[in-house]
Amino acid sequence: MIHAEKATYPIVLLCRVLKVARSSYYAWCEGEAARRARRAADDALAHETTVVHIASRHTYGVPRIHAGLRRLGRRVNRKRVARVMRERDIRGVTRRGRRSLTRPDAKAKPAPDLIGRDFHAERPGTKLVGDITYLPTPEGWPYLACWLDLATREVVGHAMADHHRAELVVDALDMAHGRGGLEPGCVIHSDRGSEYTSTQFRHRTGKLGLRQSCGRTGSCFDNAAAESFWALLKEEIGTRTWPDRATARAEVFSFTETFYNRRRLRKHKTFGYLTPAETRQRHQHALAA
Known about the structure:
Elements: H1 2-5, H2 11-18, H3 22-30, H4 32-55, H5 62-71, H6 78-88, E1 127-134, E2 143-149, E3 154-161, H7 166-179, E4 187-190, H8 199-207, E5 211-214, H9 224-236, H10 245-260, E6 266-268, E7 272-274, H11 276-288
Helix pairs in contact: 4-5, 4-6, 5-6, 7-8
Region (Disordered): 94-117
Domain Integrase catalytic: 120-284
GO molecular function, one term: nucleic acid binding
């Protein structure tokens, strides 16, 4: 106000009326160039942040936006990134609840729990977790089964069909075995759904030389890593209802293989922010060394 009215009234009078020290006013004037520079820098940072946010399919929040900028060589404070995102209303996605498909077979004898809620693996191909979910379409529900490697959180096997019989999880397991480099005796953990306690699935598991593990009935925490992936997929893929099954299949494949496995950053406790594919490469390089 003083700056706007200084042509009409003396600065001394304006400062006295508004109870502002003259030195404060002159210091404010001298800092105008610095403020313009900061605003320009914030605008440039906001542009870079928007580019990373769009590349993440509008899913990244502050931590991964900050990690993405650092990967591009941009050294910036995380709190500044948070402030710029808040001022520009750039937001990551939040997760929502989902309906469970687990239908236990009362007559089946489930495998023991070999994981014990320890969702950590020292190297790839030693522990997998799996589950089934559904995707709403007007043509009916296609069902998706996935297997995640706990060492990298990479989706190493997935299959989709218009049913959730045992063949679905067996197909996903065959894919994981073919591309995941599973070690003999690798633990494959799931819930106690009838698909995983079926004779067909157990036979296939034994033939591949894998060890089956099952969590307790009604406890989502026993398979929390797989449950977390479903929440992530359904929120970050950005679609609530697909127009048809073919579109759902194509978008899920694009999300898992193009974005999630190869581009989505995840914080590893040792390596920092890496994609699942990069985490696998780090493990492989360490073994080679």
